[in-house]
Amino acid sequence: MRRGFVNWAEISIDIGMMYLFVGGLWFFSYIAGVNTGFSPLITWLTGIHFHYSAFLLCISLGLFGRLHDSKLYRWIAPMILSGPMLVAIGITFWPILEVISVLMYIFAIYSLVLLAFQTHFATRIQAVCIRLSFSALAVTIIFSFLYALGNAFGEWIIRIDFMLAFHGFFNCIIFGLLGVVGWAMSSPKTKQLSWEFPISQVRGKLIVTGDSHPGLVDDLSAFVDTKALTKTIIEFYEQTDRYQLIASIKWATWFKPFAMCYKLISKQMQQLNLPISSKETEMTGEIKKIDTGVDGRVKPRAWIRKVGEQTAFVAIYSQHNTAGRTYMNIALPLPHSSMIGILQLEEIDGRLILKSEGSGDEGIYLGAGKFLFKLPLSEHFTITETHTGHLTALHKMKIFGIPFLEIDYRIVER
Predict the structure, then answer these.
(1) What pTM does this model have?
(2) Where do the coiled-coil regions begin and end (predicted)?
């Protein structure tokens, strides 16, 4: 759980171990003669299903993910992980779901085979074993699809006796055996990082009692080389209270129903409380010092932004240094927890970029108790001076890599 929900390689291995338990229950039911509501043959085959297409495939997928990480891998991993359960549900309750699940499986497995042939392995023999192992699935999944069609529509092209002989042999000997041998030759080590950076200890609603503070940071050059940045961009971060923000909030169409439901909660929390309308509106704000003993980080200060009388954001700004890089460390207090944004700053063509994606501490996390979870969220800011004294800021957010929120800011000196 401490890894969070973004490392699909490790998630795959975790879920694979869970599927082993499920497969064990079904196999125990078969051996013990427990009445599962299915024939002994189906009970036995279900146990095998969860051992091979669930446990073994998920473990292999996870080990492969330690060698290869790409956008396509991150798309197909959840498809493969959910596939065994969806197929089992489809067989039990709704055969059409079984067909849909197998179609999804086909796309994911053929993509996995493609990625395997593009990936460098430790040895040539390992590459042959793993590629043949995945390729065997590309063959057997077609027969699974034909069997699923027969189960759904009653027109049997492939029957269970053929599946037992052909499908079973390919999955056991070629996929299973070659896969185990291949990974046994050289098991990739995890790339999971341990997070040692400080996080805010503030949980729940923040009670602000400190004095006013002028800026979000004391010295922007501590984060990024400011030589190519304009004076206005630097002053905005160091003298934030001198600037006025006009915001236009644009929710993605697909996300609007969720945003409207969340609005009922955010209005009560007075946190992450954004308008649904995209109409331009002024965001007023003030920055207050926070007691270091309460927050636990270096020089914390809270930026409280409002839309009218409603608080939109309460963000506690600080910073930390890891491996010679200084990150912006931002906490948004939530009930019994805190959302943590670790942003890397860089200058590109005179613009200031802040982003939560990178190979270091960057990311969006949830701190709850002693645990820190990395969330499948990302954000990206672009600060630009359009003409003297006038800035624009574009704030984009994604969930699972899918855009769901965009905020356009116009920033001018008061």
Answers:
(1) 0.74
(2) none
pLDDT value of residue 152: 67
| pLDDT-based confidence at residue 169 (cuts at 50, 70, 90) | confident
- Region of 287 (left: φ > 0; alpha: ψ -120 to 50; beta: rest) is beta
H helical segments located in 243-340 = 256-269, 292-295
Tokens for 369, please give them: 């108790």
Q: Helix 8-32 and helix 71-92: axis angle, to 10°?
A: 20
Q: Could you give the CA distance from residue 33 to residue 366 in angstroms, rounded to a whole number?
A: 45
Strand partners, 348: 351
Residue with tokens 């922007």: 220
Instruction: Report helix, strand or coil for 31.
Output: helix
User: Which is it for strands 325-334 and 310-322: parallel, antiparallel or unpaired?
Assistant: antiparallel
Taking phi first (over 0 means left), then psi (-120 to 50 degrees means alpha), and beta for anything else, what does residue 59 get? alpha
User: For residue 231, how far is the Cα from the chain centroid?
Assistant: 36
**Dihedral (Cα; 31, 35, 41, 43), 10-degree rounding:** -80
Long-range residue pairs from 82-91, CB within 8 A, at least 24 positions apart, any chain:
83/53, 83/108, 84/19, 84/49, 84/50, 84/53, 84/54, 84/57, 85/54, 87/49, 87/53, 87/148, 88/46, 88/49, 88/50, 90/148, 91/151
Q: Which of 68-82, 141-155, 173-187 has the lowest mean pLDDT?
A: 141-155
Q: Is residue 98 packed enough to be buried (19+ CB in 10 Å), middle (13-18) or exposed (0-12)?
A: buried
Q: Which residue has the tokens 């996929």?
A: 175
Which of 398, 9, 381 shows the shortest CA–CA distance to 193? 9
pLDDT tens per residue, range 259-305: 999 999 999 999 999 999 999 999 998 999 999 999 999 999 999 99
Nearest to 138 by CA among 118, 154, 114: 114
DSSP, collapsed to helix, strand or coil, labels residue 67 as helix
Specify the higher pLDDT residue, 247 or 153.
Answer: 247
Please check whether residue 81 is in contact with residue 204, taking contact to mean a CB–CB distance below 8 angstroms. no
What pLDDT, in 10s, does the model give residues 328-380?
999 999 999 999 999 999 999 999 999 999 888 999 999 988 788 889 899 99
| Backbone dihedral region for residue 389 (phi beyond 0: left; psi -120 to 50: alpha; all else: beta) | left
pLDDT at 83 over 90: no
